[in-house]
Design a protein that fits this description.
Layout lengths: L12 H21 L2 H6 L8 H20 L2 E3 L24 E5 L7 E4 L1 H6 L8 E2 L3 E5 L4 E6 L13 E6 L1
Parallel strand pairs: 1-2
Antiparallel strand pairs: 2-5, 3-4, 3-6, 6-7
Bound molecules: copper (II) ion.
Length: about 170
């Protein structure tokens, strides 16, 4: 960046006060309004838009960071939501804000969020959130233990390990 002021002559003593006042005045103007020279060099970046632009950039970075922090977990192994996966979640550091993704053949299975008792008994004893799309995205909004089973009965899939208990940190 070019220096704002170029003093070519050594000022004489009687003009030094005047010069100092001019410098002070211009310094104050620059602090309040931004760098005049710079705004002339970049006409698109009008004087006074620098601060709002920086704020928007910081906000965008903040939002991007927030998005990066939440993670999608595809529940199960290579077949997704399937039999014999009940220990899949044991070592997963699933956090509040993460998304559980249940992928399966919608005509063959479903996902029911149940209580711990129903999970252990492989039953649905009360109205429970039920997902059937075959590509269910369930966002975790609080910490604790969450229980899901497949409640399709030909034979009962839950009893063949199509059930999962997930601990959210
Ligand atoms: Cu099933």
């Amino acid at each position: 960046m070019r220096p704002v002021y170029m003093i070519r002559r050594r000022p004489s003593p009687n003009t030094s006060n005047q010069l100092r006042n001019r410098l002070l005045f211009h310094f104050v103007v620059l602090v309040i309004c931004g760098n005049e020279n710079k705004s002339r060099e970049t006409p698109l970046m009008a004087r006074g838009t620098m601060v709002p632009t920086l704020l928007v950039l910081l906000l965008a970075i903040f939002c991007a960071t927030t998005v990066v922090h939440s993670k999608e977990w595809i529940v199960g192994r290579q077949n997704g939501w399937f039999f014999s996966i009940s220990n899949w979640g044991d070592d997963k550091p699933i956090k509040v804000g993460d998304v559980l993704v249940f992928k399966y053949k919608a005509i063959a299975h479903n996902v029911v969020q149940v209580s711990e008792e129903d999970y252990n008994a492989c039953t649905v004893s009360r109205p429970s959130p039920t997902y059937r799309s075959g590509n269910d995205h369930i966002k975790v909004t609080s910490s604790g233990r969450f229980f899901f089973i497949c409640y399709v009965k030909t034979p009962l899939h839950c009893e063949n390990g199509m059930k999962i208990a997930i601990t959210v940190q």
